[in-house]
Amino acid sequence: MLALTLALAMGCGGVDDATTPDLEESGRGTDVPEEVTTTEQALTVFYGTHNHGGDLFPGEYEILMGTACGGDYVRNFFNVWNVGNGSCSAIDWASPDARDCRVRVRINRSGGYANGTCHVQVDASPLSEICGAHDKCATGTKLHPLCGSAVSAVCAADPFCCNNSWDSLCVNKVFSVGNSMACVRNSCSHTLCTTGGPLTSNCDAPTLSPSCVSRICAADPYCCNNAWDNTCKNAVSSVCGKTCN
Q1: Alpha helices for 98-242 (secondary structure H)
Q2: Residue 156 has what pLDDT?
């Protein structure tokens, strides 16, 4: 009952660690760059049929159809349709687990010994392709909650970011909702979550007040006098209570 077919479609995106300006909610989707029109590589991980009918009286029941998505794939969408007598329809995914490619299906068989066939198709996309399409600090195609804790927090607060596209509002929420400094640069020469040259005290203000850079450099002057190394980067968590996820 299980058959695999491959559908080809590729997607790509760029990386930009600078913060982006605020947008009005009414303008959602208007600032999305060209790459959102592309799609990631998709795979039909399940196609199966269920024959129903052959009874004198009509009846209704529920079944599960599908399989585990497999590998690093996460479910994308399902399609359920009926051929012949009776009907079938999708109720929902079998579980909240994004790696579970099973679907709950309602069967309505016709009476009079008439037969019908329910068809179910489930497509999934590789998580590596979705998360690798672009950095969370850049606008682009929708991301997935499994792309990281900050992305998960943003998508829980704003489902648009994982259902439609990752726009500038999503990028801004990496800090405001995801508690991550990964996208905050302001006047800093680089983000606090990347190593590099020394940062200037207070360069991350006014995004964070008091300034995380100032607090780290007060604890470890090397970070503002010599270089922003892994010790400075790790202090984003230990000193400022933020993350780089």
Answers
A1: 127-132, 149-157, 160-163, 168-176, 212-219, 222-225, 230-238
A2: 96
* Whether pTM exceeds 0.85: no
Nearest alpha-carbon partner for 148 in 125, 167, 165, 132: 132
The residues, any chain, with a CB within 8 Å of residue 129's CB and separated by 6 or more, are 11, 40, 41
Q: How far from chain centre, in Å, is Cα 102?
A: 19
What are the beta bridge partners of residue 100? 68
3-state DSSP assignment of residue 37: helix
Residue 183 CA to residue 190 CA, distance in Å, equals 10
DSSP letter at 156 equals H
List, for residues 21-73, the tens digit of each pLDDT value.
Answer: 333 444 555 443 333 333 446 799 999 999 999 889 999 999 999 999 998 99
Cα–Cα dist 83/237, whole Å: 57
